[in-house]
Design a protein that fits this description.
alpha+beta; three-stranded antiparallel β-sheet; 3 strands; 41% strand
Length: 87
């Protein structure tokens, strides 16, 4: 059973989703990152099924007093043929 060829012209809605912490003043907890990942999995597995169009990998280094903090986050651009009602 072959999958149909992915056609970029059929994409009508793009959802931008951040997974991780991008703000040093408001770090995301483990629970918040888990919720972000669950939404990502829902976008990729439920109907209408989305496809990853692009991926941004980001990190920042911050000095907080004597400590150096590394923040990492990924931004997924997920394309859908139509906007999901649950978004």
């Amino acid at each position: 059973m072959s999958q149909p060829t992915f056609d970029l012209s059929s994409i009508r809605y793009v959802h931008r989703m951040v997974v991780g912490t991008s703000n040093p003043n408001n770090p995301a907890s483990e629970e918040e990152v888990s919720v972000q990942m669950e939404l990502l999995n829902r976008c990729l597995n439920e109907v209408p099924r989305g496809s990853i169009l692009g991926l941004e990998k980001n990190f920042s280094l911050f000095n907080l007093g004597e400590h150096q903090v590394v923040l990492q986050w990924m931004v997924y651009h997920i394309g859908f043929t139509r906007k999901p009602g649950w978004l």
